[in-house]
Design goal:
Length: about 270
């Protein structure tokens, strides 16, 4: 597990511009050990960019980034990146459709989508176990291309867990899922978070009802700014969400989750 003491992830005054556009505007954020975060914000608010910076795949124009006790710029990023998993529906396009689900999971070990045949038997067993734990044991030998959207996402989660990542970034993993597939995926996330020594998960969504009970903290991002960040219940019951999405909104808390309700008649 984490041998470092202090923040799992730390962004200090991170600033990013492309041409005339400021994409990230002096973001400071710390993920401490034991914290599990949701990141919420409208389309284009900078969520993916912020997390790419956090994962060391994009470089900010200014600011300081540290992950797992290592400052970016002073560490071999290739090694560090194997400790940071990434799951998103955008990744799906990179997976060869003919590759079997189990092979996709194994390819996580080699940080590539093509290579899996160097895997040992122990690694294969681990991959099977991960698929099993995500409710995908039955589909291990099916080609990735024929899987449902929800199964594809859960295979990608298993793939990200193959390297025993300390940080797992899930960037809108529920995009395109129907209600049942979404609930199955959320159940897998909740189970992952409540197991012993879970990775630090950062779960990105537009939909606050997808924030599972085991998530402890939330950030609301809007226009590259952090509007609010802190303990989940405080952030989701405050006015930051309504400001970010520009709608009058009330939030109900039921069955461990938060449900938004648009107040008044939007369409009159
Ligand atoms: N390489 C880039 N060059 C110019 N603009 C970019 C680039 N990457 C992202 N953006 C812009 O930055 C903003 C934030 O994008 P993104 O991080 O993808 O937001 P989100 O994930 O919240 O939808 C968007 O307006 C997007 O168009
Ligand atoms: Mg995004």
């Amino acid at each position: 597990m984490n041998e470092h003491i202090g923040a799992v992830l730390s962004l200090e005054d991170v600033y990013m511009r492309r041409g005339d556009t400021v994409i990230l505007d002096r973001i400071s954020w710390q993920v401490l050990p034991g914290e599990q975060w949701a990141v919420v914000g409208p389309n284009g608010s900078g969520k993916t960019t912020m997390l790419k910076v956090a994962a060391g795949v994009m470089w900010p124009s200014a600011g300081k980034v540290e992950a797992l006790g290592h400052r970016y710029g002073q560490v071999d990023l290739r090694t560090l990146r194997t400790r940071i998993g990434w799951v998103s529906s955008a990744l799906e396009e990179l997976v060869p459709a003919r590759q079997q689900a189990l092979e996709v999971v194994l390819s996580g070990l080699f940080a590539s989508f093509g290579i899996y045949d160097e895997a040992t038997n122990v690694q294969r067993e681990r991959a099977c176990g991960l698929l099993e734990s995500l409710g995908c044991g039955r589909i291990a030998d099916r080609p990735y291309g024929v899987l449902s959207q929800g199964e594809k996402q859960r295979v990608l989660i298993a793939r990200a867990l193959m390297t025993r990542a300390d940080i797992l970034i899930m960037d809108e993993p529920t995009a395109g899922l129907d209600i049942t597939a979404r609930e199955l995926l959320l159940e897998s996330v909740e189970r992952l978070l409540t197991r012993e020594n879970p990775p630090a998960v950062i779960f990105v969504t537009h939909h606050i009802e997808e924030i599972v009970p085991a998530i402890t903290h939330a950030m609301v991002l809007c226009g590259g700014h952090v509007l609010a960040a802190g303990i989940k219940a405080d952030i989701l019951s405050g006015d930051a969400l309504a400001r970010a999405f520009s709608v009058p909104m009330e939030v109900d808390f039921r069955h461990g989750r938060f449900w938004p309700r648009i107040r008044g008649a939007m369409f009159e």
